[in-house]
Specification:
The structure holds 2 protein chains of 2 kinds. By secondary structure, chain A is mainly α. Chain A is built from 20 helices and 2 strands. In chain A, strand 1 and strand 2 form a beta hairpin. The longest helix of chain A has about 40 residues. In chain B, helix 4 runs antiparallel to helix 5. Classes of the chains: A mainly alpha, B mainly alpha.
Amino acid sequence: MNIFDGFQVIASAPQLLLYILAGVIVGVSVGAMPGLSAAAVIALIVPITLYFEPTSALIFLYVLGKAGRYGGSIAAILFNTPGTVSSAATMQDGYPLTKQGRSTAALRMATVASVSGDFIGDLLLIFGAVLIASYTETFGPPEFFAIYFMAFIIIGSVISDSVMKGIVSAAIGVIVALIGTDPITGGARMTFGILELERGFGLIPMLVGLFVISELFDQAHGILARRQTGPIMKNETANSSAKISWLEWKLCIPTILRSSVLGAFIGCLPGLGSAVACFAAYGEEKRRAKRPHLWGKGALEGVAAPEAANNAVSGPSMIPLLTLGVPGSTIAALLMGVFTIHGIQVGPSIFSTSGELVFTLFAAGLLGIAGYGLVGFYFGPWIGRTIARIDERYIYPFIFVMSFIAAYSAAYSFLDIYVMAAFGVIGYLMRVFKFSASAFIIAFVIGKGAEEALRQSVLLSNDGIMIFAERPIAIVFICIGVAVTLFRIIQSFRRRGEKTLDVQSDGVSK
Amino acid sequence: MTNEESLTRKSPSEFVFSLILLAISIVILVSGSQSKVDEVETINSRSLPVILSSFVVFFSVIRSMQTYPGFEKLKFTEIVDTEMAMRVVVPLTAIMIGYVELVHISGYPVATVVVMLAVLWIYHVRHWKQALLISLFASALSYIAFAKLLGMYFPAGWIWKYVPSLF
């Protein structure tokens, strides 16, 4: 199987093109809505896709995730509000360009950069995943536990501003995953005598609670605080210039290429994600800039760099999922849930057991990139203007009802609604106190697998836990995880020291 | 009080949150340490729950100390507008739980209209005609899409068994 077989499958089943188109339209529109992330929408839509064939469901959600990541740039450029976290860096130069009457040029540059970055990332996915999978097929439980351990502490330490809060979020995610029946002894664990808890918590109600309900709380909080909503802007895109000079193209093309490679590399590592990639690329390109004085005031390179990097993450973030069964991002964790629901085992053997599906997914990803590129290039400003006219107060109640249906329909259980409500409150508290819902959910998804790998490793060995010291690959993964965490701890101590110095110098000047 | 003013007000919210986290993690630690184990296993079903919940207990204790309102320097605490948060979280959660009961009583379409009206009110929509129209539209659209087209099952609502007898 190869990528051309994937295209052939799509050509032989034209309805798949409709799923790609639907993914593009829903993704771009939802991504462009301030506050509503692609992950939240995927969580809402997953139960509906249970009625689809696995290939159609996965294609639709995968393309939706890609287009949603791009759509975030529209909100960042036009409304100074990132539609997704990964577009936060785009605002810094995107919105000043809108104020200068160059929003169409900024949107077009964002589209070109996103398409280029996503394409480069997908090339790495297509050629890299097969190679890595052929190598990881030889891994046993100790190597897998080492990978889970590495993913757990990298996700925990990198995904959140506070290393400790990130790791605690991941730890709670694993604890929640372990509630239910023990996979080896078959006994009930941490169920408090509640029979329903023996099957554990369902992924979908938890996802909807953590990502959608907590967002609804947050938006309601914002609306109450502002006491007014209405359009954020109306006419700034109406007469804006779409012209990008040759000099600007000359400055942006190398920026796009460098940022795409950086984003693709960051995407391969579990947990780092597009938010890290966009700020890393923005910082690096600002440092290299030929016109640094324009950065932050409306430099097109300041739009190109984060957009290329954050979209380049999309493809490679699937590499850990497909080759190791470890989701690299929230969207990958959601897709892992969808794979599992449809009975497809993710991991190194997926290329031999479901090769056709995987290459069809890759081909759909490439077509999706072309699709959102065309939609964004020609209709981006129009989508932005349309969304600006919609009063968000009418959208969120509808999403509230959709959440109810999503949580209920996964297992036709009203208990799941209570689970969703509880995790909605937990998700909201996590936002307020700066814990990470993404670290929680990724750890929840890998938690059971990690425990099984650990216990199998120790059962297989005569030396108990020392089996990990006898496996060089396991040592490498554990060391990478520990090194990244130590680096983040040192970095956060330095930042805290700088902040304290700033506060002290402010006090002296007053 | 403006939002900015209320946000700058120092509150003990994170201290309370840390105490709740501490209580929950102790309960999980105790429960995790009581689960059935296989004597053959060195690392058994208790190991990960106990290790991880002990870590969360440790973190919660440290965090409770850092955010204790009695300390003069509250530089580590997150400042939360608790009053505003409660005005959102409590009613929306209550509506969600009420929605389940209402679906059992009146069936999905009627329950959805009532719930949509309540949620629109919380989102500060005060034009009742608009709100009613949107609620009816959302209820009808979602019922047709999910119950009729996708074939999802929703309870019919027991009240409808008694309504014909009223006439």
